[in-house]
Structure to design on (140 residues):
């Protein structure tokens, strides 16, 4: 579970830190206020991917050279113990470079992804789930 998230240079969002103290967090607001961009940042932190953009460069604010999303994440290990770790993803312009960090160290993709599994459900996802059985099988 993501406990806090820090944003810098991501889309139209101002640099900020948001603490997520509850197990359930509702993101509300008027249209065009950054709700989807904030949710995209959380998904990016967990999966290294966007659920909206095709290219990583699309995530970087037009006035920035890099975008950084970092956060404190609760993680239960396979032995039943738990702990909190700092994770970060940095996206840079140019060739679309990406750097991943877990704790103080750069991380390989497979290791990074093991810390925070995530699934995004969009309007398109729910249409697929509610659709025909062949559509559901294709989705899964």
């Amino acid at each position: 579970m993501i406990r806090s998230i820090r944003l810098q240079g991501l889309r139209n969002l101002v640099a900020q830190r948001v603490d997520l103290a509850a197990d359930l967090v509702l993101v509300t607001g008027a249209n065009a206020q950054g709700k989807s961009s904030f949710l995209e940042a959380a998904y990016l932190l967990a999966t290294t991917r966007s659920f909206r953009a095709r290219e990583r460069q699309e995530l970087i604010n037009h006035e920035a050279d890099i975008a950084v999303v970092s956060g404190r994440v609760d993680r239960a290990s396979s032995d039943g113990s738990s702990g909190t770790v700092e994770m970060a993803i940095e996206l840079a312009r140019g060739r679309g470079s990406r750097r991943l960090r877990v704790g103080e160290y750069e991380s390989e993709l497979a290791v990074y992804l093991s810390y925070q599994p995530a699934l995004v459900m969009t309007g398109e996802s729910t249409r697929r789930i509610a659709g025909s059985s062949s559509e559901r099988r294709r989705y899964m």
Remarks:
- Strands lie at 2-8, 16-19, 66-76, 82-92, 98-102, 105-106.
- The mean pLDDT is 85.
- The helical segments are 35-47, 109-113, 123-130, 133-139.
- The chain is about 25% helix and 30% strand.
